[in-house]
Amino acid sequence: MKIGVLKTDDVRKELVGEFGEYPEMFAKLLRDQDPSLEFVTYEVQHGHFPDDIDEVDAYLITGSKTGVYEDKPWITPLMEFVRLLHEREKPTIGICFGHQLIAQALGGRTRKSDKGWGVGVHSYELQETPSWMSEPLETFRLLVSHQDQVEELPPGAKVLASSDFCPMAMVQVDEHMLTFQAHPEFTKPYSNSLMELRKEVFGGEVVEKGQASLQNDIHESTVARWMLEFLRKQ
Description:
Elements: E1 2-6, H1 13-19, H2 22-31, E2 38-42, E3 58-61, H3 75-87, E4 92-95, H4 97-105, E5 109-112, E6 118-126, E7 139-146, E8 148-152, E9 157-162, E10 170-173, E11 177-180, H5 188-197, H6 199-202, H7 204-212, H8 220-232
Parallel strand pairs: 1-2, 1-3, 3-4, 4-11
Antiparallel strand pairs: 5-8, 6-7, 6-9, 9-10, 10-11
Helix pairs in contact: 3-4
């Protein structure tokens, strides 16, 4: 399977040397489950899109510090591309910003949550077990870094997992789009470094709580398997 990564942001320059860019994080996460996977990166944040929607088998939209409602020149074309992916029923995964953008592009709504920033390890409860999921977990944990949240689902969408902090944390749109608010590609060292760098933005108390949460286990490998199972069922 060849996966096209729609890259919507860059890793902070202070962290690239140690952790790599987002497409590399996703490649490691997913190749740990299947070393045969191929990846192609499209710098959509710079206006670079696939020439042919079918030049890859599936797409993955990364996270970004940008809000989906911001007036950036690349966001409208990306939303148009998401609508095309939806129309063509192309298998697509959205992560954080990608999760929010898919909802917004298809008729839902994303906004800055009055619950504030979520960082560190968050826990989610599975609300529904889809047929493609071979290893369901009643509760699973992943790393997060977000203030925006999906607050209204688009038509054809259903919530698969939620938490009190983020009620629409894992969403499936029809049979071909799967989205997560959390970051399965993040590692604990990367999350910790990001919290340290953005302490003034997140706030000291939020960072302290987020760093304390890093003692909890995360289920990134299980979620990676879910992602691949979802893409392969297509």
